[in-house]
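Async update (no meeting this week)

Hi team, since we skipped the sync, here's where things stand on the single-chain job. The sequence we agreed to prioritize is pasted below, unchanged from the tracker. I ran it this morning and attached the output directly underneath so nobody has to dig for it. Comments welcome in thread, and please keep replies under the output.
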Amino acid sequence: MKLASLMLAISLVGATVGAPAAGAAVSPSESQVGVSAICEFIVVTDGAPVRKSPYTTATILKRKNLGDRVTGNCDWTRDSDGNYWDSVYCSCAASGIAWMRSKNLRPDL
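Output:
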């Protein structure tokens, strides 16, 4: 019987650890729990362009070399010509996000 009481007490304490007090205001940032996905890629084409937007005619912000590692937020798109694009983090872009053709990248597992 003591073991059952101890287990119940532990489960009750565990359920309330980190929980706000009843009636306490919690901002959305404190109540949201999540992990942002980060995708990692290896560049498989030398001089692969990093573009401002996911179109072959978009401004080239910089180029990446064969074997370079790039990361992004796992967003992708397909343009009207059927080209697939992956978003990559880039300090060269005002928004911090640039685009590379998927055919120039492979997942870094």
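Quick observations from my side:
The helical segments are 2-16, 28-31.
The first strand starts at residue 39 and ends at 43.
Reply here if anything looks off.
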